[in-house]
């Protein structure tokens, strides 16, 4: 239909025909000497746009004109008209429906994106309003109550699930690119835009992180980050909204598609925190970030979460012992993959921890390391033994060897005697050698203490065995009568 209408527009010469074939939005120049034909063409173009889109959304200058065909004084009015044209939303679930209209809208969106990207004049307040309205109509939608039921961040951390892609992405991507260019444009004044990129607008942007389409979440991440940087007045509100998402995830649902992206933004936010840290930021670390380690889907966002935690410690080193206490509280017992992640994060913390904070937590921490070294899962045991490859950690151990080595040594001896995995066995022997070279006298004392403990343990086992033998013998001498329990030996 759109091509048939355009074919009725009078042509001036062959070049115009070729131009219109390449660009269906191109109409004859209104300043042409052939004013009658130009006016006729303009009239046809208006009827065409009205035929394709509802006339109620078309206001001001004819939206089908190209930006280069209007004077500079009219460009902002044309910009607003094209934005109004793009407020029509199509159904992309049916690929064969409104094909030409969809292509026209896409071409118009590309024009708008190009205009915003080319350092236009200062955006007027009506232009900002129209821009936010167009973005809101195209982007903001409400997810159904059961939308989270199939998300990739829920439950079992199944990374093999295929992501869901929005069929309307051919339009959505351009709208997101437009919004990003608009927010970052020097032509957009924050004092004007803050009235329309307001709390309601920002909250809807954050709600969109629930999307299952990873491309959409990536766009949202860039946009929200830029909004946070440009609109200082909105920063506390953005932090509050993101915190609410994290709290809801931790204490209610443990399901959300955009946790990784939101944490990535928050990691950048933390780097900008002023010192000393506010109490609200420390509370957020303790009540939200640390409990997020307990979720089954930790693997989806672990890298971003670990970065946030490390940023807090770099800002205020005294928080290191607090974080380690929290990790020990939520330490996984039956999930070996999560246990490996915890060991990796603890290593990063120990690389930046100061001696005083380390000494506060070293006893419970190395008691946990002891259990990890003796783990039947070779990856857990291997990762725990790899800690001795870190010079900073070895230095911390060396300065506190009188306390740490007696804790760790029994685990090394158990591994050296009977661990089933050869890689773990070799690592154990290497660590054992490092300890002996670190302090030979203490090493010999640990051996002696271990042998004595083994002798005590063997003696206890032997006594227990003798007690059971006496009980069994005594029971065998008793006559068996009705209602009498019989002790069965194995």
From TrEMBL:
It comes from the Eukaryota. Transmembrane segments: none annotated. Gene3D superfamilies: Leucine-rich Repeat Variant. Pfam families: B56. Residues 9-39 are annotated as: Disordered. InterPro entries: ARM-like, ARM-type_fold, PP2A_B56. Residues 23-39 have a biased composition (Low complexity). The B regulatory subunit might modulate substrate selectivity and catalytic activity, and also might direct the localization of the catalytic enzyme to a particular subcellular compartment. PANTHER family: SERINE/THREONINE PROTEIN PHOSPHATASE 2A PP2A REGULATORY SUBUNIT B, SERINE_THREONINE PROTEIN PHOSPHATASE 2A 57 KDA REGULATORY SUBUNIT B' KAPPA ISOFORM. Belongs to the phosphatase 2A regulatory subunit. This is Serine/threonine protein phosphatase 2A regulatory subunit.
């Amino acid at each position: 239909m759109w091509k048939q209408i355009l074919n009725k527009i009078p042509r001036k010469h062959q070049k115009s025909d070729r131009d219109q074939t390449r660009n269906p939005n191109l109409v004859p120049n209104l300043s042409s000497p052939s004013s009658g034909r130009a006016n006729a063409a303009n009239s046809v173009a208006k009827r065409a746009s009205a035929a394709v889109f509802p006339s109620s959304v078309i206001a001001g200058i004819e939206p089908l004109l190209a930006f280069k065909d209007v004077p500079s004084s009219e460009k902002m009015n044309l910009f607003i008209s094209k934005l109004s044209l793009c407020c029509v939303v199509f159904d992309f679930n049916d690929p064969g429906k409104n094909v030409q209209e969809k292509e026209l809208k896409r071409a118009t969106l590309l024009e708008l994106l190009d205009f915003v990207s080319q350092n236009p004049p200062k955006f007027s307040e009506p232009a900002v309003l129209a821009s936010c309205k167009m973005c809101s109509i195209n982007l903001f939608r409400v997810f159904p109550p059961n939308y989270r039921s199939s998300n990739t961040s829920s439950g079992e951390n199944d990374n093999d699930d295929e992501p869901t892609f929005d069929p309307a992405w051919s339009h959505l991507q351009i709208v997101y690119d437009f919004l990003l260019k608009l927010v970052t444009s020097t032509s957009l004044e924050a004092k004007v835009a803050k009235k329309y990129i307001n709390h309601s607008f920002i909250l809807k942007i954050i709600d969109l992180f629930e999307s299952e389409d990873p491309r959409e979440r990536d766009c949202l991440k860039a946009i929200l980050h830029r909004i946070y940087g440009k609109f200082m007045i909105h920063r506390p509100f953005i932090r509050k909204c993101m915190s609410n998402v994290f709290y809801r995830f931790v204490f209610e649902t443990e399901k959300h598609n955009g946790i990784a992206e939101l944490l990535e933004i928050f990691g950048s936010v933390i780097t900008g925190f002023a010192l000393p840290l506010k109490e609200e930021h420390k509370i957020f670390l303790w009540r939200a970030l640390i409990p997020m380690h307990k979720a089954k889907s930790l693997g989806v966002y672990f890298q971003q979460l670990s970065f946030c935690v490390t940023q807090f410690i770099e800002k205020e080193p005294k928080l290191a012992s607090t974080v380690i206490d929290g990790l020990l509280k939520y330490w996984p017992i039956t999930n070996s993959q999560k246990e490996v992640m915890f060991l990796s994060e603890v290593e990063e913390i120990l690389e930046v921890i100061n001696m005083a904070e380390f000494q506060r937590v070293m006893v419970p921490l190395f008691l946990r390391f002891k259990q990890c070294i003796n783990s039947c899962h070779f990856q857990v045991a291997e990762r725990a033994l790899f800690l001795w490859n870190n010079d900073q950690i070895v230095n911390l151990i060396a300065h506190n060897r009188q306390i740490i080595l007696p804790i760790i040594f029994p685990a090394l001896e158990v591994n050296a005697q009977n661990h089933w995995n050869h890689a773990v066995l070799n690592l154990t022997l290497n660590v054992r050698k490092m300890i002996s070279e670190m302090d030979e006298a203490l090493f010999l004392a640990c051996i002696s203490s271990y042998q004595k403990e083994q002798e005590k343990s063997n003696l206890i086992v032997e006594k227990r065995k003798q007690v059971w033998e006496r009980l069994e013998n005594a029971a065998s001498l008793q006559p068996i009568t009705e209602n009498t329990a019989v002790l069965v030996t194995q």
